[in-house]
């Protein structure tokens, strides 16, 4: 991974984001942007997203999440932090 042009972030999305297709739409958006990672539901009702790829595309996904994601969802808050996984994911999964 070229540190200058590629990055990984973890994001936690809060609001009405479970049971509304949020992970599916996030996966579709991430794949469209050429990113790898995952979108997982968490026990507290939030969704955790790991996104890795070209910095510009990762930022575009974060902007999409902050803009509210899919129309079926309601995003109240998005928290992000840089992430350095031990190994890079090969695809974008939901689970």
Q: How would you sum up this structure, described in words?
A:
- The model has no long low-confidence stretch (mean pLDDT 94).
- This protein has helices at 22-32, 55-66; strands spanning 6-16, 36-41, 47-54, 74-82, 92-94.
- It has a single domain (6-85), classed as Alpha-Beta Plaits, CATH 3.30.70.
- The protein has a 5-stranded mixed sheet, with helices on one face.
- With 95 residues, the protein is α+β, with helices and mostly antiparallel strands.
- Helices cover 24% and strands 39% of the residues.
- The radius of gyration is 12 Å and the shape is globular.
Number of domains: 1
Number of helices: 2
Q: Do you know the CATH architecture?
A: 2-Layer Sandwich
CATH topology: Alpha-Beta Plaits
- Rounded mean pLDDT is 94
Helix content: 10-25%
Radius of gyration: 12 Å
Give the terminus-to-terminus CA distance: 25 Å
The CATH class: Alpha Beta
**General shape:** globular
In sequence order, what are the helices and strands, one letter per element? EHEEHEE
Question: What is the total tally of β strands?
Answer: 5
List segments where confidence is low: pLDDT < 50 over at least 5 consecutive residues: none
Structural class: alpha+beta
The amount of beta strand, in percent, is 35-45%
Task: Give the biggest beta sheet.
Answer: 5 strands, mixed
**Cross-sheet strand order for the largest sheet:** 4-1-3-2-5
């Amino acid at each position: 991974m070229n540190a200058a042009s590629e990055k990984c972030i973890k994001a936690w999305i809060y609001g009405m984001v479970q049971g509304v297709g949020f992970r599916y739409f996030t996966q579709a958006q991430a794949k469209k942007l050429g990113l790898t990672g995952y979108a997982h539901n968490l026990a507290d009702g939030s969704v955790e997203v790991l996104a890795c790829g070209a910095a510009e595309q990762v930022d575009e996904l974060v902007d999409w999440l902050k803009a509210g994601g899919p129309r079926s969802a309601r995003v109240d808050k998005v928290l992000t932090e840089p992430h350095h996984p031990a190994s890079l994911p090969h695809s974008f999964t939901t689970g």
